[in-house]
Write a structure and sequence with these properties.
Blueprint lengths: L1 H10 L1 H9 L21 H16 L6 E8 L2 E8 L5 H19 L4 H7 L6 H6 L4 E7 L3 E8 L2 H18 L14
Antiparallel strand pairs: 1-2, 2-4, 3-4
Helix pairs in contact: 3-5
């Protein structure tokens, strides 16, 4: 397993550097920005592993749902919706997962992202340390829900943005990696 991790890190280093730069990225079907091409033989293996672990940890099928990660001036949001408006099973699983995530993150528990991504996501150590400075609020939507994340602390805000950029890259959503002035609501 260590050898596979080394190869994955070595061959995907350009993508990691791109994400750290804050440059736009994409790759999710329907994404406005095409995915960068790095000729990484292990990248599709990594993507499949994230999808498989995500389905197991989150409790819903990534192919029946759509993730979005929004960066805002106050923090951001994690949004998930069922693709089919009649898919009440996915909608209910999304709501259960996101309401649980809001509570866990507020307590400084980021075990779910660790299980999905097999690593500590950027920003998590600071988000844990400054958990009292960050508000997580679950809001249901017609097809799923969102966790709105907000802070007034600059260090926490930077950590939240790093965490959300990581999620955008890992889930291949193609969402903007720069904060918008508007609320995610």
């Amino acid at each position: 397993m260590k050898a596979i991790r080394f190869v994955l890190v070595a061959c995907c280093a350009p993508m990691i550097a791109l994400a750290a730069s804050g440059a736009p990225e994409g790759g999710h079907p329907g994404s406005p920005t095409p995915a960068p091409s790095f000729d990484c033989p292990m990248h599709s293996v990594h993507d499949a592993a994230v999808d498989e672990r995500g389905d197991r940890v989150m409790g819903f099928d990534h192919e029946k749902t759509r993730h979005h990660f929004r960066l805002t001036a106050a923090g951001g949001a994690i949004e998930v919706e069922a693709n089919d408006p009649k898919d009440s099973e996915s909608r209910d699983a999304i709501r259960m997962h996101l309401s649980h995530i809001a509570k866990m993150f507020a307590e400084g528990d980021f075990e779910a992202p660790m299980l999905i991504h097999d690593q500590v996501a950027p920003g998590v150590p600071v988000m844990k340390r400054l958990k009292a400075e960050i508000r997580y609020e679950f809001e249901p939507s017609d097809r799923g829900g969102r966790v709105v994340i907000a802070t007034k602390n600059r260090e926490a805000l930077d950590a939240i943005h790093a965490f959300l950029r990581f999620q955008i890259r890992e889930h291949r959503t193609g969402d903007p990696t720069q904060a918008s002035a508007s609320s995610p609501r």
